[in-house]
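Forum: Protein Structure Q&A
Topic: Joint prediction for protein chains with partners

I've read a bunch of threads here and the consensus seems to be that you should model interacting components together rather than docking separate models afterwards. I'd like to see that in practice. Below is the full input, 560 residues plus whatever partners are listed. Could one of the regulars post the assembled result?
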Amino acid sequence: MNYYFAFLKKEFLESIRTYKMLMMLLVFFAFGIMNPLIAKLTPDLLNAITLEGMTITLAEPSAFDSWTQFFKNISQMGVIVMVIVFSGVLGTELSKGTLINMLTKGLSRAAVILSKYTCMAFIWTMSIAISFIVTWGYTVYLFPGDALDNLLFSVFCLWLFGMFLLALLLFTATLVKNNYGCLLITGAVIVVCMLLNVIPPVQKYNPLSLATRNMDLLMNTIEISALYSTIWIAVALSMVFVALSVLIFRKKQL
Amino acid sequence: MMGVLEVKQLYKSFGKREVLCGLDMDIPEHSIFGFVGSNGAGKTTTMKIILGLLKSNSGDITVCGEKVSYGETKTNRHIGYLPDVPEFYGYMRSMEYLKLCGEITGLSKTQMKTKSEELLSLVGLADEKRKIGGFSRGMKQRLGIAQALLGEPELLICDEPTSALDPVGRKEILDILLSIKGKTTVVFSTHILSDVERICDHVAVLHKGRLALYGTLSEIREHHRHNSFTIEFSNREELSLFADCEELKRPSINQSNNGNTITVTVADIKSGGHFLIDLLSKKQMTPVRFEIMEPTLESLFTEVVQ
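Posted by a regular:
Agreed with the consensus. Here's the joint model:
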């Protein structure tokens, strides 16, 4: 436990001093501002471009459009930024050899994995929270009076998907030594999830649904309960990945 | 005397390439142990196995009487390790780094503070306020020693601590290692033989996965002495006068000369020495230099490695 807190402190210091935390928070903050703005301005932008004899009529923008932007941006760009920022979480330390010193001092390898996961999870949670709060505030200001269903639950699903990805990323980092391999495998797993999602019965158990069904939740086209099994699977898989990371890392030649 | 580190029949291969084949080593307490070998001889591999970072094919290692197991090993709490190119978190300052190490080693706050300050002044980094990222290689090496000594280990393992340093940096590192002798057993690998001669009391030469030479420096020298004397004269005439002596024309005596110096090999170092001194006084000759030829570590090293 002492190891864990000592190393967790180091992980936070590292995220701050190497600007990882700042980068994540800024990017997600920018998304937060952009989402409602894009929703608000898109019709005006299109109106400004007057094509000959063509008129594009768009429905009056609403809070719904703003949240469409939120879930689209975070589940695509946001997640990609996150994976890239954290892709070197273990690989950099292993290839540079900074971890060797710590491990030969008796630092437990489980503490390394767990503290790294905790730190990543914390930054991801902060980032998505900032983005959510900014989008929410701005949306209420720009589109007052629009109420939406299941908003918090939907954001929770997206957050959980991020947690699942981080566990996957950490797991791949214990399998391969370099950062690119780690990115590649994580990407490949996501692609496989996407392909599997084409088959309707699989959707219910595919963690990817946590990042693709958000608007359906907001529109009430699916019930909250439809995602329960997905949530349990994502939680279970994340735990399995972290546990496997610990087991593999314990027996890794360094 | 119990060995701090004992290695028995250690085997390790990478794929088909055998690096260690039956390495035996026993390192006595409070010695400075020079671990010599050419590049790629397996010095780093041996050290990494001792630290549980690499898995050996077979063999036993004990540190302070405890067996080393691969992976997370408890024996590491007896060991301080300085890797060949120590890498630290570049965004930290040296004090912060030692604090982190201290927390991991399990030192109390007050212990940590006094010990860190003591070590930083020992390695000459006490007034350094820069982040580690801006350190020179020598400074990193010195910080490496400080972090390795933080837990007051019984065994300090240094992997080529002096190889990449300038002469001043090298001297500083060697002085630090020499200054901790008595408190800690030091094992350091190197291929700079003059470093070994300067500070080590025990030497082992690793060659073809085994120890080709092992013992204290004087033991090794004694063992490999060639019963030869070097006698230097002030000029060539005196030399030839001596070399032409009838007394030296015996089958048990060999001689060869080079400039003003003559090398005489005799059957027995003691009686041979007396004989040569007697001969010199009988001929009323005073040499400039008269000495027993000591084998240099370099000549021994090349001898065993070839």
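Residues 110 and 116 of chain B are 10 Å apart (CA to CA).
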